[in-house]
Write a structure and sequence with these properties.
Layout lengths: L4 H10 L5 E3 L4 E4 L3 H9 L7 E2 L2 E4 L17 H4 L2 H6 L8 E6 L12 E6 L13 H10 L1 E2 L2 E2 L6 E6 L7 E2 H13 L1 H4 L1 E6 L1 E3 L9 H11 L3 E5 L21 E7 L10 E2 L6 E2 L5 E2 L2 E4 L3 E4 L6 H5 L4 E2 L3 E4 L2 H18 L5 H10 L10 E2 L2 H6 L32 E2 L12 H6 L1
Helix pairs in contact: 5-10, 6-8
Length: about 425
Amino acid sequence: MREGAAEAAGQLAGSVAGAKRFPLIDGFAASLSPDDLDRIARDPEVESVSLDAAMLTTDRGGGGDEDGDSLATAYPSATNAVQAWDEGITGGGVTVAVIDSGITGGNDFRARVSGRINFSTLDPSSADRNGHGTYVAGIIAGNASPYVGMAPEARLLGIKVTDRQGAALASDVIQALQWAVEHRDEYGIRVVNISLVSSIADSYRQDPLSAAVEEAWFHGIVVVVAAGNFGGEAFTVDHAPANDPYVITSGSFDDAGTAEFADDAAVDWSSAGQTVDGRAKPEVLAPGTDVTSVLAGPSSYVARSFPDAVVEGGYVRLSGTSASAAVVSGAAALMLSQDPGLTPDEVKFRLMATGRALPGAPATAIDAYAAATSDLEGAANQDAVPNDFIDPETGEIMRDSVLWRNVLWRNVLWRSVLWRSVLWRG
């Protein structure tokens, strides 16, 4: 690319009505007419153009039949988080940003929700009318006995990107990540949880969402993402951002609703395998079957879609790697409250190094106490290759190239697609 490409890119974005600029990745999103698309695609400064992918949540719907004793949260015990609490490690001083459908406040969070920001193109309301984000937030940092999350004293930020049905666009997630990087110090953001995956399978190397999560990672934010619920078939782990080698991708195991390790088992619906870029995913596993967490409200999409999964009126029991990613985000918050100096690479290394083997599973199951109290030295991602638009030496977007990946086709396609069967049952 010739010198001044970024400036030329700005001029191109300015020529399209309603374009949203993303300085984090030197890109933009816009609705384009066929003529504008052809004009921009032919411009010598344009590196590439692609569809603005629809994002999918990673829950599988309501849980199975269980007795009353298993409805209280078992996952903090199944991951040894309770042992960390006993030593005063509870996530205090750490903020986890939840990029999802928003967070509905309540007794479970009290004043620990530091802010609510809405970047959803599809829903102007700041309320969590879907319920997925509140559910995820409760697993990370809920604190109302007996439904206590992994890091009960951590702070939360609700960054909304989905609408009431759970639909989102990759460009909205990128904008949310950009905001999190820009406001990292102001809010004390150390962890970002993304329990969403792209609907399009592809290499991470030229994916704009992968570039965005890597930029957040290189700016000192631990990014935890859900693996997806597509099983172990080909290309199931090739959905951004779960396919990116830098982030912590979490798959699921079944803790059987108990604190015992002996009855833990692998599940066949959690995405696992080798990406097209040769990376094994996921890196870690966490409980993801019949996990009970906070309900956004009786009128939320989750409550209306799965009435049999509602527990005691204020909670809901769901399954999926969405829950597992939230468990891992909570564990990361415990680690950072115990040792604030840890880098994202060090957090990932310790989570992987201190996990326990699970027969038949594709990765180790996390041990939150062992990870939080470990003094093991090492860093993950030493052999990882950054996204093609990131300078491997500096970790910054290369300013002499332009990433034009996000063309927003929502007026043509995505607003006519209802993802309900994929969102909750996949």
